[in-house]
């Protein structure tokens, strides 16, 4: 409980999800990784200072992963949670082009051909080409799969690609 008391609820939440997403852990494993128990996670859900979005997301994760009856208020809909988790912030045309050229550059650097990458990610060749050309936006799930196939952490991949820094990093030799 000391960890929860020392840090803010939002900081605990951020660490819990960063660890869980990066290593694809269930909530119990992610909680153990950062040194808190499931009871403390449930306490975290009940605290008032936490934003509603954060509470919804934690409650849904608990309900799904722990197969527990964690009650959500009527106003806490799945749509709200999905909107926060898989945020589909549409990219501008420049961001789409930047993201697509980053994918193409990483694919070439990895030595994989289009057919292999498309097959592993679950895209058609045309869809992969559209993403690489910046004509189509990759969904959050497709971004995560591309990151996994091309050997890059999906959180880093998503953050860099959304900020348009990925291509610059690869050209400079970082990463």
What is the helix content? Answer: 55-70%
Instruction: Give me the secondary-structure category.
Output: mainly alpha
| Order of SSEs | HHHHHHHHHHHH
Strand content: under 5%
- Global shape: elongated
* C-alpha termini separation: 37 Å
Number of domains: 2
Number of helices: 12
Radius of gyration: 19 Å
As an assembly, this protein is single chain
Major β-sheet, in short?
Answer: none
Mean pLDDT: 66
Low-confidence runs of at least 5 consecutive residues = 1-6, 68-88, 165-175
What does the model show?
This protein is an all-alpha fold. It has two domains: 2-85, no CATH class; 93-172, lambda repressor-like DNA-binding domains (434 Repressor (Amino-terminal Domain), Orthogonal Bundle), CATH 1.10.260.40. Helices cover 69% and strands 0% of the residues. It contains twelve helices and no strands. The chain has helices at residues 2-6, 9-23, 27-34, 38-46, 52-66, 78-85, 93-110, 114-121, 125-132, 140-149, 154-163, 166-172. Helix 4 runs antiparallel to helix 5 and helix 5 packs across helix 6 (78-85). The longest helix has 18 residues, at 93-110. The radius of gyration is 19 Å and the shape is elongated. The chain starts with a helix and ends with a helix. The model is unreliable at 1-6, 68-88 and 165-175 (pLDDT under 50).
TL;DR?
The chain is built from 12 helices and no strands. The protein has 175 residues and is mostly helical.
């Amino acid at each position: 409980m000391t960890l929860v008391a020392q840090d803010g609820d939002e900081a605990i939440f951020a660490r819990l999800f960063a660890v869980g997403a990066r290593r694809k852990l269930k909530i119990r494993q992610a909680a153990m990784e950062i040194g808190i128990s499931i009871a403390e996670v449930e306490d975290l859900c009940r605290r008032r200072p936490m934003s509603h979005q954060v509470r919804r997301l934690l409650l849904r994760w608990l309900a799904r992963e722990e197969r527990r009856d964690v009650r959500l208020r009527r106003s806490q809909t799945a749509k709200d949670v999905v909107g926060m988790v898989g945020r589909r912030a549409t990219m501008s045309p420049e961001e789409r082009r930047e993201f697509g050229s980053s994918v193409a550059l990483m694919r070439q650097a990895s030595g994989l051909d289009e057919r292999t990458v498309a097959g592993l990610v679950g895209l058609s060749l045309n869809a992969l080409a559209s993403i690489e050309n910046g004509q189509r936006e990759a969904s959050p799930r497709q971004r995560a799969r591309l990151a996994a196939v091309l050997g890059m952490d999906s959180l880093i991949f998503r953050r860099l690609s959304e900020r348009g820094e990925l291509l610059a990093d690869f050209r400079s030799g970082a990463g």
